[in-house]
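Researcher: I'd like a structural prediction for the single chain below. Treat it as a standalone chain; there are no partners to consider.
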Amino acid sequence: MNQLGWLAWLCLIGIALFGCRGDNQTLDRIQADGVIRVGLDPTFPPFENGDGGLHGIDVDLAEAIGRELGVRVEFVLFGYDGLYDALQIGRCDILLSALIVDVTKTKDFSYSEPYFNAGQFLVLREDQNEATELADFEGKTLSVETGSAGHVAAISAQNRVRDLVIKTFPTPDDAMWTVLQGETDGAIIDQVNAKLYAQAHSGLVLAPNPVTVEPYAIVTRKDDGALQRELDRILVGLEQSGELNSIVSRWLD
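Model: Treating it as a single chain, here is the predicted structure.
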């Protein structure tokens, strides 16, 4: 799966939103000091977890970026609500902490190419191959977590998929359990919860195409254009080499 291909349109928007980026100051300092300071909130496994030592997808990705830059990675830990403020006042150089691209913040911050889609996916039984997209669910039953983005997507699908039945459940695990037991034909669940559940319960798979897109990206200050371009270059290289997929798979597959 192409981790960087979901948002080709984002690049076009980025050109309009981000404008000209020519400030090399932060990148030059990182290279001169031999250290890049990465801000994250260590309370969101499997992306970052501070229990028993810092580890997770974002930690491994940061280390890979450090290797490509030829510098040491220094992790600086903050609460989630303080991440953007910490970057703004210079307490870290980048944010790499499962952060969704937020266009309301592009006045002060810029986003890299997305490295993960945390959006909604169809969860299916492994032996089910006749329905792999929402359009195939005519006369079938979908389970969702009540009030989730998957619930919204399912309701929207009812407008175009005839006789689609939606069953709601209090948690993602409850919804996926009904698929595993054959009580429903599929579930719409965010990719993180879906993959973690499938890790622990054999017999479930994710459909290949996402239902919705919710991109995670690396955040830089608006005026650190040279650093952002370098991060984009590294992410593309990690994608092409397969290392990005290996990092994600290590924790989610």
